[in-house]
Amino acid sequence: MIKKTGLFILLIMLGLINQQCLKPVDYAQKEQEDIRNFLINNNITVEPTESGLYYIEDEVGTGKQPVTNDTVTINYITYQLSGLVIDTNIESVAIQNDIWQEDRSYTPFSFALGSDMIIKGVNEGISYMREGGKATLVIPSKLAYNDYQPLAFYVELLKVKHDTTSVK
Question: Are 131 and 147 spatial neighbours (Cβ–Cβ below 8 Å)?
Fold first, then answer.
């Protein structure tokens, strides 16, 4: 009788442990914790914008401020909040982080601000900058790839060419 009771208790405990292991992960909550930890670990105290973007101005630019459809030219480094660099247009950074690709051109990157081809968080962050400025953007996944993986971008706004087609 004691052996059966002990076995029964053991099976119940294993079941409870298994239940805890199979408990679904709240990815949205984990993402918020990851962002909060990144901000704390990097002594970032700015408040998020209304959309949730954290815009940290590293160096104030003195040139033109872009608006939607302006062509902007930037240097950038994209990294996970863990610090792992995952993309850049700067060759020395690509080499240093072992992501250099032979068939890639490492030159400043130009695009129309507001383009659907660029993630929302980058478009928004650059819209706050002035030519010559540098900023770090902490981007929640809802402004990036909707995969619960927040990103950080270091951006240097090199040039702004105003869109003349929309001027009347």
Answer: no
- Which pLDDT tens digit goes with each residue over 67-82? 999 999 999 999 999 9
Paired strand residues for 80: 151
List the structure tokens of 105. 């051109």
State the Cα–Cα distance between residues 98 and 116, nearest whole angstrom. 29
> Max alpha carbon distance in the chain (Å)?
92
**Angstrom distances, CA of residue 42 to CA of 39, 82, 94:** 5, 11, 23
Report the run of H or E that residue 120 belongs to, with start and end.
helix 120-127
Residue with tokens 């770090």: 136
Per-residue pLDDT band for 5 (boundaries 50, 70, 90) equals low
Report yes or no on whether pTM surpasses 0.70.
yes
Q: Which amino acid, residue 106?
A: Y
Fill in the amino acid letter for 23: K
Task: For the domain made up of 27-161, give the CATH fold.
Answer: Chitinase A; domain 3 (3.10.50)
Tell me the one-letter amino acid at 89. N
In this structure, the number of other CB atoms found within 10 A of the CB of residue 168 comes to 2
For residues 49 and 150, give the distance between their C-alpha atoms in angstroms, rounded to a whole number: 15
